[in-house]
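Cross-check.
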Amino acid sequence: MSRIGKQPVPVPDKVKVSIDGRTISVEGPVGKLQWTHRPEVQVRYDEADRQIVVTRQGDERLHRALHGLTRALINNMVIGVSKGYEKRLEVVGVGYLAAVSGDTLQLRVGFANEVHRKIPAGLDVTCPDQTHIVIKGPDKQAVGQFAAEVRAVRKPEPYKGKGIRYEGEAVRRKAGKAVVK
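Predicted model, tokenized:
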């Protein structure tokens, strides 16, 4: 049996869960999320113990894989609506800067033109200063996807380290051609 799948998902007091057929709705102080799971697994909410239990139909490879995946996704939903997720990016380089204007993230990262990225609905993007970007939201996948898209605009390069990186990310540096003996 799946080690992750057999663990029940604890539901905090401030989170409301409703299951309608295969659709799971989770609502909390940070937001509301909804997801439809695959028919190979069953999801049950135990209101007395305030936990969500995921079970599977059979012991086939696909059923075992979906068992742990479903439990992990539901756990991420519960954490997302209660605490939320956050990714921090830093912009490194002379003249490189970021700003939020309405529902658009503006990046000046060494190209001839400014790069504009539309902020997806449900995410809160702020720039505490011109070299940092903070992405917050209840949906772990949406937060990570938008952070990856912003980072892909100008990945950190290995010679000077300029570009957009996750906060705390270690960029492997290379020695330039001047280092030759």
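The two ends are 59 Å apart (CA to CA). The longest strand covers residues 85-92. Passed to J.P. for a second look.
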